[in-house]
Write a structure and sequence with these properties.
By secondary structure, the protein is an all-alpha fold. It folds into 2 domains: 98 residues, Serine Threonine Protein Phosphatase 5, Tetratricopeptide repeat; 71 residues, Tetratricopeptide repeat domain (Serine Threonine Protein Phosphatase 5, Tetratricopeptide repeat). It is built from 10 helices and no strands. The termini are far apart. The model has no long low-confidence stretch (mean pLDDT 81).
Amino acid sequence: MAAEKISRKKLLKEPDEFISTTTKVIRFLAVHRRQFIRYAVLGLLGVVAGAGIFLYLEWQKGRALAIQAQALQMYEEADRKGMGTEGEKESLRRALEKFREAIAIDHRGTQAQISQLYIALCHFGLQEYDAAIEAYRGCLEGPFRPMALNGLAYCYEAKKEWAQALEYFQKNAEEAKNVFQEEGLMGVARCYEALNQKPKALEYYQKALTQNPKSPMVDLIQRKVSELKG
């Protein structure tokens, strides 16, 4: 059956599909142009704000780093002035305030963890052991965990809380490839001595000797082993 022939006149009367669709799109855009403009502006503002926040955070990080550098210099000054002197204490207090200032500006990441660690060291140097313990606890999650454990152990040892000190020394003593392992073993041995558990103290002194026979403390360890053996 032959297709029905449509006259040119009829075709001209019917709306072209492409033209009709385009018209609808143009009308839609005209009606909703304010929404499109608003979304476009918001998107642009988002990009600008994101860049601004990034630059601000980088500026904060740089400012905190500069203050941290000042604090480190003060901490080194304290070390040079001699342990227990008034000059050392003064420098430690000044360093402490600067490290706190650095954290107040930027409390994120490794840089802030370093300041937190030095806050603990300053408190320890000032014999403020409870404050040092609190600061060290802020470093237990992250790359400075072994150092924080070691610091906590020394704080409790200074307070003569042997069981607590033993717990933290033990954590480092049990971890192989830990730069504080030898200090951990020695600390455990000292705590057992203080708790009058001489066989356990002897065991850990011998472990320390076996683990590191070329230790700078080898003479001390051998003397302790001899004493405990009787």
